[in-house]
């Protein structure tokens, strides 16, 4: 039975036996309060409803406080009445003792209408004078104390009721209008990738197909861009030369402070990954990194069977693999690339630039990935073990080459005669010795 125990209303939302329903003035449960107010015993294991609606709950609490006030006031009045009786008895006993000792008690001034009231002597005791005149000023003082105590009790319970009913009746507050300054613009969330951007309309062009995008051509060169901001940034960096050089690694970068913090002072970054210990500059980058520690890949590609841990990576995959998007064009050989970094690495093949030096042997490499793979040679530890034999290797690539001897898989066919080889270097050697050497000599 899902009905209110008092008004039989539907959908009651408070349980009589809930542990949170305890008053602040005493430690009574709501079931005890219910029994105290209405003399109704509610069993916890009963099949009858043990729930109550919010309106009946507030009424029961109000009645409980009112009844407690009445009980306390009654107890106080009875105690006060008993004390006054005891005091009167003490006064009468003192008067009887005075009469027995030969002191006559003066008659009351109201006993004879024709007789003038007696003059009160100042030397007489105060209590005796008050008793003679019939003026019970002591009781008058007690009444004032009584009224003040009842008033304090009343206001005490009124304040408790207002505090307890405050979460039940919430007043509608006017929403404060937050006026943001021009230095702190309001950011909008993109539904496609989840990024917070300043200009959502300009950002939405990035998710459109390349053929539908509006392009902005650079005024100084032939490059085109998807937005005005990208074109202005290109103009500042490439044509105006607004780059700064890092004194630590001698790199020329656009944002020097951000470069130093991300590359050279990574320990100062505020967000910390518990699993691997890496630090990140923002919570969004940390959340994106945390997906690499889980096996959940809830974002599948609609074009193929691949799945990704975040939506942003899935969209990048679609743009790069299925849409064949290549917006970064090499001006020397007309090759195009999807990412700007890939274009920068490609340009080093024209300039023969190798900026990354190995600290162990002094060799130079064009990318950090190649340098990292090379440095595994200098380590004494052979971390990559073969599962089919006892051999171990320093690099994963060496292990992959070794596994061909176990699997006997030949994936590299000769482009001249079609003979397949298990390793690409063996195929290259065959093509030179069997086909190209004789052709070159002739």
UniProtKB/TrEMBL annotation:
Residues 96-119 are annotated as: Disordered. It comes from the Eukaryota. Its main location: nucleus. Zn(2+) binds at residues 4, 7, 53, 56. It holds the Pfam family zf-C2H2_jaz. InterPro entries: Znf_AD, ZnF_C2H2-type_TF, Znf_C2H2_jaz, Znf_C2H2_sf, Znf_C2H2_type. The keyword Zinc-finger applies. It is found in: Nucleus. This is Zinc finger protein. It comes from Spodoptera littoralis (Egyptian cotton leafworm). SUPFAM superfamilies: beta-beta-alpha zinc fingers, Glucocorticoid receptor-like (DNA-binding domain). The keyword Membrane does not apply.
């Amino acid at each position: 039975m899902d009905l209110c125990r008092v008004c039989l209303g539907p959908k009651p939302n408070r349980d009589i036996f809930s542990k949170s329903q305890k008053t602040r003035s005493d430690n009574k449960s709501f079931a005890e309060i219910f029994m105290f107010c209405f003399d109704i015993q509610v069993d916890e294991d009963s099949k009858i409803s043990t729930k109550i609606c919010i309106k009946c709950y507030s009424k029961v609490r109000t009645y409980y406080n009112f009844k407690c006030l009445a009980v306390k006031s009654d107890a106080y009045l009875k105690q006060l009445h008993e004390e006054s009786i005891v005091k009167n008895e003490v006064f009468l006993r003192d008067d009887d003792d005075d009469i027995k000792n030969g002191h006559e008690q003066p008659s009351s001034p109201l006993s004879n209408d024709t007789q003038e009231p007696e003059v009160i002597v100042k030397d007489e005791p105060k209590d005796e004078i008050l008793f003679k005149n019939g003026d019970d000023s002591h009781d008058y003082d007690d009444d004032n104390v009584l009224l003040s105590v009842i008033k304090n009790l009343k206001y005490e319970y009124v304040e408790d009721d207002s505090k307890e009913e405050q979460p039940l009746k919430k007043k509608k507050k006017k929403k404060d209008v937050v006026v943001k300054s021009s230095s702190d613009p309001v950011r909008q969330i993109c539904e496609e990738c989840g990024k917070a951007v300043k200009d959502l309309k300009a950002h939405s062009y990035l998710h459109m197909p390349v053929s539908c995008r509006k392009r902005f051509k650079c005024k100084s060169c032939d490059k085109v861009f998807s937005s005005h901001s990208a074109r202005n940034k290109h103009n500042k960096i490439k044509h105006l030369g607004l780059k700064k050089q890092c004194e630590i690694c001698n790199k020329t970068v656009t944002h020097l402070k951000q470069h130093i913090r991300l590359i050279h002072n990574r320990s100062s970054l505020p967000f910390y990954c518990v699993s691997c210990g890496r630090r990140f500059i923002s919570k969004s980058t940390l959340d994106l990194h945390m997906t690499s520690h889980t096996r959940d890949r809830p974002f599948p590609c609609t074009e193929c069977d691949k799945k990704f841990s975040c939506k942003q990576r899935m969209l990048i995959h679609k743009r790069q693999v299925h849409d064949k998007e290549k917006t970064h064009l090499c001006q020397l050989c007309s090759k195009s690339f999807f990412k700007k970094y890939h274009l920068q690495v490609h340009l080093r093949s024209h300039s023969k630039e190798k900026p990354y030096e190995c600290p162990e042997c002094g060799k130079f490499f064009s990318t950090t990935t190649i340098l990292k793979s090379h440095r595994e040679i200098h380590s004494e530890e052979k971390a990559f073990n073969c599962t089919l034999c006892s051999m171990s290797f320093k690099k994963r690539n060496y292990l992959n080459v070794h596994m061909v001897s176990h699997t006997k898989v030949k994936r590299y066919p000769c482009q001249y005669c079609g003979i397949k080889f298990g390793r690409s270097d063996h195929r290259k050697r065959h093509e030179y010795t069997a086909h190209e050497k004789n052709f070159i000599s002739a």
